[in-house]
Amino acid sequence: MTPHPVRIGIDVGGTFTDAVAVDATTFALLGQVKVPTSHDHPDGVAHGILAALRELQDQTGIDASSVSFLAHGTTQATNALLEGDVATVGVVGVGRGFESWATGRLRSLAKLQLTPGRGLPIRYAGVRDAEDVVEVKAAVAKVVEDGAEVVVAVQPFSVDDPLGERAVVAQARSQGLLATATHEITGLYGLAKRARTAVLNAGIMPRMVETADLVERSVEAAGITAPLMVMRGDGGVMSLPEMRKRPLLTALSGPAAGVAGALMGERLSEGVFLETGGTSTDISVVRRGRVQVRHARLGGRETYLPALDVRTVGVGGGSLVRLDGTTIRAVGPRSAHIAGLAYACFAPAKALVDAKLVTVAPKQGDPADYVALETPDGTRYALTLTCAANALGVVPEDSYAHCDPEAARRALEPLAKVLGLSTEDAAKAVVRQAVKPVKAVVDDLVDGYGLDRDALSLVGGGGGAAAVTPFLGAESGLDWRIAAHSEVISPLGAALALVRESVEKIVPNPSHTDVLAVRAQAEQAVIAQGADPAGVEVDVTVDPQRNLILAVATGATELRTKDRAAVADDDEVLADVARTLGVPGSEVSELARTGHHRALGARSRPKGFLGRFRPVAQHVRVVDVDGVVRLHSANAHVERTSVGEASGTLTRLVDEHTRVGDGGSRAPAVWLLVGPKIADLSGVLDRDQLVALIGAELKSRTPDEPLVAILEDRG
Q1: Where does the Hydantoinase A/oxoprolinase domain lie (predicted)?
Q2: What is the mean pLDDT of the chain?
Q3: What's the mean pLDDT in 322-326?
Q4: Which of 333, 380, 453, 654 is exposed most, by the fewest CB atoms within 10 A?
């Protein structure tokens, strides 16, 4: 039996189901297993999950009672949408006059193409008076008679008054039907987009609920009583009851688990995460310790589904080289897997002696310009990006993608002859061509999100990470590393992920009371799903142009106090901070500290020619006890105070740093270091809203507790 509680993460992939066990206190990997995904079993993927759990218990000796948390990620919702495998949805519109006309137009949702030739199966009925039980019952009966398997209640202004939608949902559920309403999906206006999102949610609900029930039984069969969580598409997890109501939130969660692993396991706070498989690389951004999320497009149309901003490039570890005469045309998008060939570099070196270069078409209709190796006995091998990376020696020896260097060099020799290059130069040409589109996307994300190039890192995950990240880091001049246990970064992310909930609401001219109400709603939502109240963090953004309030709450199901034998070495921390600031270590000083964080800084002018004409600024880096940079600013004010004195001190500072311009006043960006948290209040521009949120963050703290405020003037 393990001495500490254990967290288990499971990733259900198309081919394999991976499971890991992680020490909940030290985050150490205790064990990992891989079993075939059981698509064809009567219990579906749940059977494979049970097999993985039992094998993991046998391998590690973990007692079921020591499991404190279990989460799984699945591609089931995504695949159902991509394949058009959805249930028939009965839309019940509520309202008279204009409302009736507006909801009636939602019949056009049937034209939404999830996949070529597969639209959304929609049935429609209208209700004029939702208080008329007979009329509501008749409308539900009509859509069911027309073949609906699940019901969606729609009313134009239900985000303000949901009573009509609730009446329809209650009637449907009383008849044993699955049902949902648009106000349960989002608090945003926009009838068409809100209804579209709700209908997609309903379309996958029957299948997802059935799977959830089977998975729950599998976990119980393994003797585990810990709460079962499911990965969301925005990088967090949700409880099983919430997943049953809003299964759409699990769509596009494939890359989300990997990013969660980079955030928690790799402590990535500023940078780009690249998850490389055999065929493609998913690229996403972490800025100031937060994943970047946007509303996803499904079926070619925008929805209110929050999901990671992920860019996918058709380059992976198994990508095949394409040749145009004596020039490398491209690398990918087809891979060794698609061509049905083994990687040449993983063959015995002696098997590649006297191999010759041949061209192939991986799939019928593909151009025959993909190259492969053919040995004297007629065996063919794929010449891949992984082969080239190994031939250059950039793949770390402990990497999942590492192979015999001699085999890799022999694999590149036939290509080198055709190109008229040395083996090393041929390998460089392959890797450079492969990372070109990846680098373009990374550069676009770095510039688009305004990432600090001096502070960011490239982190590679996935089985093919070492084929892309090292060379990309060298080409970009950026810090890079391969995530520990990168081949299981997704189940690791599921094991370490935080409970997450986002609440969006349109409030014309919102007051600080409105902002606090949305914040409280998000906070209570994650607590209701099992998050420890003491560790919940809520980030609030107020967009005055759109009258939009967004609150994102995250929290762990148990308060984490990581057990460490020692904290980071002071000299190493100072040297690392000095490097990111571009100054000598002697110029870095400690500006403030709490029990969990230190604010380090140095005064300097901005870099570049124009920097010499700019004033000297206070550059700040906030590091945690691990020495990881958790927050950075190019020009900040740092204030030490206590919780008891904070109200007056911070109100004064906010007033001093509020800037007034043609567009009105803009309060400073504020971060609070208090206890184990970094409270991010930078998304609020209004002075009164900011002061109110500061009060909300501090209300549960003791008066003598130290507090550090970081204030950054708006440009």
Answers
A1: 194-501
A2: 90
A3: 91
A4: 453
The residues near 320 (Cβ < 8 Å, ≥ 6 apart) are 331, 332, 334, 335, 336, 339, 362, 370, 371, 372, 382, 383, 384
pTM of the entire structure? 0.86
One-letter amino acid at 374 equals E
Identity of residue 256? A
Q: Do residues 217 and 46 touch, judged by C-beta distance below 8 A?
A: yes
∠ CA 535-536-540 to the nearest 5 degrees?
145
- For 197, residues 6+ apart whose C-beta sits below 8 A from its C-beta are 182, 185, 186, 248, 303, 304, 305
> What 3-state DSSP class applies to 681?
coil
Sign of CA dihedral 55, 60, 64, 67: negative
Distance in angstroms (rounded) separating the CA atoms of residues 242 and 340 = 41
Token pair 């958790």 in the structure block, residue: 630
User: The dihedral of CA 205, 209, 210, 211: what is its sign?
Assistant: positive
Collapsing DSSP states into helix, strand and coil, what is residue 122? Answer: strand
Structure confidence by residue, pLDDT tens digits, 416-468: 999 999 999 999 999 999 999 999 999 999 999 998 888 889 999 988 898 99
Cβ within 8 Å of residue 533, ≥6 positions away:
527, 555
Distances (CA, A) of 90 to 106, 124, 296, 438: 11, 6, 23, 43
Alpha-carbon distance of 375 to 344, in angstroms, equals 10
Which residues have CB under 8 Å from 145's CB, separation 6+? none
Quick one: pLDDT at residue 552? 95
Asked if 235 contacts 284 with a C-beta cutoff of 8 angstroms, the reply is: no
84: left (phi over 0), alpha (psi -120 to 50) or beta: left
Which residues are CB-neighbours of 252 under 8 A, at least 6 positions away?
Answer: 78, 233, 296, 305, 307, 308, 310
Confidence grade of residue 613 (pLDDT, cut at 50, 70, 90): low
Contact 320, 335 (CB under 8 A): yes
Confidence class of residue 566 from pLDDT cuts 50, 70 and 90? very low
Amino acid at 161: D
- Answer with the residue of higher pLDDT: 156 or 557: 156
Residue 171 to residue 140: CA distance in whole angstroms: 8
In three-state secondary structure terms, 651 is: helix
Query: Residue 547 in 3-state DSSP?
Result: coil
Residue 489, burial from CB neighbour count under 10 angstroms (0-12, 13-18, 19+): buried
DSSP 8-state assignment for residue 573: H
> What span, in angstroms and rounded, lies between the C-alpha atoms of 548 and 78?
28
φ, ψ dihedrals at 70, nearest 5° = -145, 125
**Which string of DSSP letters, residue by residue, matches 339-376?**
HT-EEGGGS-GGGGTT-EEEEE-SSTTS-S-EEEEE-T
Cα distance between residue 487 and residue 620, in whole Å: 35
Asked if the peptide bond before residue 255 counts as cis, ω within 30 degrees of 0, the response is no
| CA 375/CA 351 separation, integer angstroms | 7
Can you give the pLDDT at residue 358?
A: 95
The two structure tokens encoding residue 71: 């989460």
309 closest CA partner among 283, 331, 289, 346: 283
Q: Are 458 and 476 in contact (CB under 8 A)?
A: yes
